[in-house]
Give the backbone structure.
Amino acid sequence: MEKKNLDWANIGFGYHQTDKRYVAEYKNGAWGEGKLVDDANVVLSECACVFQYAQTCFEGLKAYTTEDGHIVCFRPDMNAKRMADTAKRLEMPVFPEEKFVEAVCEVVKANAAWVPPYGTGATLYIRPYMMGTNSVIGVKPAEEYQFRIFVTPVGPYFKGGAKPLTIRISDFDRAAPNGTGNIKAGLNYAMSLHPIMEAHRAGFDENMYLDPQTRTKVEETGGANIIFITKDGKLVTPKSNSILPSITRRSLLYVAEHYLHMQVEEREVLFEEVPEFVECGLCGTAAVISPVGKINDHGKEICFASGMERMGETIQKLYDTLTGIQMGNIEAPEGWVKTIL
Ligand SMILES: *Cc1c(COP(=O)(O)O)cnc(C)c1O
């Protein structure tokens, strides 16, 4: 198969329209047969539920080429399950989890020429999403839906190494205590746009959100879970029912415990205790782990011992091990790496 002629290392993090996308429609209480289509546009009623009441959710995962030339993706069953949980909370029909994984494989196969070659650092980002499509004006869930998947090649997240980030404590809240923080819904991102732009305008890379009820506990950032490393090499990550259950973070916890033989704690983390940690990282599919060098709390700085030049030693080990597993250079736990081609 001939690869597209792109400058893979420099394609950046934008959208590139690829050849095929997957569409399945839900009507009269059932999902129809899904299929691959060429048209990248979605044409809907002006009154579609997704436009009026934001009834939409999404997932994100990546496919990449391994050293021995296979195309694989990482734990797509976890995305299928998470999207099912999200759909239930938004009164949307669940797209069957097995079909979700099959559809992911189908779209990636159909766009194999767009999967960046091994060693370029680029990957194929896969975006499954679902939306209420029929017209709804009185507030209620839609009766018709589309489940779609498109893919787009994305460049290496860290060009020239991962520079530690400076994040700030936000005065905005991300998720209410019994709200929608634990699901991957577009609405959680709509409301995060203003805080992130404000953070950027003030010179920060991201917002760290505290629990809205007491503002004493660490939750997560706008789009990534948080891990900390203690002086004695323990991994600590916040536990809260308003944090989005990151597949990267859950995989890192497993890697820490079973590959690196570290102690792992998932528990409430008081903001007060953050200065005691020596390393901090943000985890999600896009970057795997972005190191945090500094947290700014209304002008007061917490500087991690790992500094502003490079990833801390322990986070680097976690990063290398997980990416090694993903790339097929380190043996993966059963079922983690799905071979597509
Ligand atoms: C998607 C997402 C993450 C990261 O999840 P992964 O499954 O690791 O990609 C973290 N936080 C939020 C709010 C998210 O939407």
The CA atoms of residues 27 and 210 lie 41 Å apart. Residues 60, 184, 220, 223-225, 244, 246-249, 283-285 surround pyridoxal-5'-phosphate (CB under 6 Å).
